[in-house]
Amino acid sequence: MSEIREIASGLQFPEGPIAMPDGSVILVEIKRGTLSRVTPDGKIHVVAKTGGGPNGAAIGPDGKVYVCNNGGFEWHEIGGLTVPGLQPKDYSGGRIERVDIDTGKVEVLYTECDGHRLCGPNDIVFDATGGFWFTDHGKNRERDRDRTGIYYAKPDGSMIREVIFPADAPNGIGLSPDGKRLYAVETWTCRLWAWDVPAPGQVTGSQPFSPGGGSLVASLPGFQLFDSLAVDSAGNVCVATLASGAITSISPDGSKIEQVPMPDPLTTNVCFGGPDLTTAYVTLSGTGKLVSTKWPRAGLKLHFS
């Protein structure tokens, strides 16, 4: 395993990393309610204050950052780790936001779809046409939790569509290198699903009892939980894995599974950067760190990045 290098500490539950051309990493601090930039020297600069619970983030076709805001959490300190909890009393509602990283201006694009509110938007990926897919993980309360799904929307605020419903706490989402396959993971079931994408914002699948007819690519044994993900240039799906604290690389057909251990059981996300896209930037959320490691394969270059 390659050396793990700490870039920054003191982050307040970092997630949604985006590797920028200048070597910095833009990410969210969910507990702090900010979109922040970490420079290569480890300094942390607030880009924008979103409030709520900014989660997944991605660069759109206009160069702005699109943020899945889950509306916030209760927070706990357990065994030296910062841990998110139930829906808080000051829950501000789920939404999709657009952030101008030059001015810090935050716009709310979507708060509902077809009369159903967004509960806890989580992760996001843009396709080649400029539309984006996102998951709604939902919120947990003491005696119940939300039923949610997977959505497709346009970045100008003109269209949002619920494409897959229901899914069981969907979290990370990504597209294959050719854009013809959509991947998403469910946290509690620890399952990676895949759907064919015949056209932008559409999926097909042949399994009658699965979410949206999707195909089960892989699931992990024991007590492990899936979080957010990135796809590499070979099409492997690299999923941040909770409890075990790892990045799990899964081949497109699910036949090959590798794990790279990380020093935090709340390893929440990964993105690829560097000149050859072989630097993996990983958010260690429980300990509030951003780290990097050399990845054996190049990451997939994201649209508009």
Describe this entry's structure for a reader:
There is one protein chain. The chain is 0% helix and 49% strand. It contains no helices and 28 strands. It has strands at residues 4-8, 14-19, 25-29, 34-38, 44-49, 54-59, 65-69, 75-78, 81-84, 95-99, 106-110, 112-113, 116-117, 121-126, 132-136, 148-153, 160-167, 170-175, 181-186, 191-196, 215-219, 225-231, 237-242, 246-250, 257-261, 267-273, 279-284, 289-294. The chain is an all-beta fold and 305 residues long. It has one domain (4-294): Neuraminidase (6 Propeller), CATH 2.120.10. The strands form eight sheets. The chain has a four-stranded antiparallel β-sheet, with no helix packed on it. Strands 2-3-4-5 form a four-stranded antiparallel β-sheet, with no helix packed on it. It has a four-stranded antiparallel β-sheet with strand order 6-7-10-11, with no helix packed on it.
Fourth-level CATH superfamily: TolB, C-terminal domain
Following the backbone from N to C, one meets helices and strands in this order, namely EEEEEEEEEEEEEEEEEEEEEEEEEEEE
The SS-based structural class is mainly beta
Quaternary structure type = single chain
Number of domains as seen in the coordinates: 1
Q: Biggest β-sheet, characterized?
A: 4 strands, antiparallel
Radius of gyration: 17 Å
Q: Percent of residues in helical segments?
A: under 10%
> What order do the strands of the largest sheet run in, or round the barrel if closed?
1-28-27-26
**β-sheet strand percentage:** over 45%
CATH level 1 name: Mainly Beta
What is the overall pLDDT average? 98
Count of DSSP-assigned helices:
0
**What is the level-2 CATH architecture name?**
6 Propeller
Note poorly predicted spans.
none
Number of strands: 28
Distance between the termini: 28 Å
Look up the CATH topology.
Neuraminidase
